[in-house]
Structure of Nitric oxide reductase NorQ protein:
Amino acid sequence: MNETGKVRAGEAAPKGIPFYLPQGNECALFEHAWRNRLPLLIKGPTGCGKTRFVAHMAARLGRPLITVACHDDLTAADLVGRHLIGDGVTYWADGPLTRAVREGGICYLDEVVEARKDTTVVLHPLTDDRRILPIERTGEVLEAPPEFMLVVSYNPGYQNLLKGLKPSTRQRFVAIRLGFPPPELERRIVAHEGGVDEALAGRLVQLGQALRNLTEHDLEEGASTRLLVYAARLVASGVHLREACQVALVESLTDDEDTVSALAEVVDAVLGA
Ligand SMILES: Nc1ncnc2c1ncn2[C@@H]1O[C@H](COP(=O)(O)OP(=O)(O)OP(=O)(O)O)[C@@H](O)[C@H]1O
């Protein structure tokens, strides 16, 4: 498996580096961005490998990774830090962004469009050539070391197209688009991550492709690589293939009963009724 990113014996990735099979030139581009101190935006559908890619690159570059899952209640103080009271004294506690700047780490803001626009504005002085983080509450102005990098991701699906990012935020990042991996690559990913042989992984990937073809009509977004991995893991632990697909690839994708039936038909057609 690989939630922790540990690589099985025989895999190409060096020990301690989370397993990641690139879709294209994204690893080199990430490294160039890091060396040139450019912030990076990664866009792509849910479960296509964005988080794994960042974890892989942080380990490859030997930088600590600090991840923040953004949401609409996230405040600037949640990122930068706040005064806390403990044992009757007030002390300053760094937020994750400040910690990443101090440590020269990679700060990864997942689903950045979820954060309110007034929150993302704290990123501005860090993401242009000033590369500073002013901490109003303490009066400090931190200069980001060369190793620091800000990476943000979002899923440019229908809802997020409406939310978007302010142009003044957006135009501070270089951007990489990831999609679902091409079938041959996805088969290797599902086999590795799901702990199944490549033949079974190939069938699941074929099913994933067929389910993605339905997306335009019935679903907001297609079956992700993550869900294919889940189906594989269930099969690897003894769940019948059909049942694994039902729970990982049908019921997880929609609540609409007609769509569930349509998806189940696709499963039957691909796996053979
Ligand atoms: N290129 C890849 N190499 C290795 N594993 C991958 C790859 N792409 C996807 N995976 C697998 O798919 C899972 C989901 O990927 P990940 O969590 O990175 O998605 P994500 O794009 O960050 O999703 P979200 O937008 O929902 O956070 C990973 O845990 C991993 O098992």
Confidence is low (pLDDT under 50) at residues 1-12. The pocket of adenosine-5'-triphosphate is lined by residues 2, 19-21, 44, 46-52, 110, 155, 181, 189, 193, 225-226, 229 (CB under 6 Å).
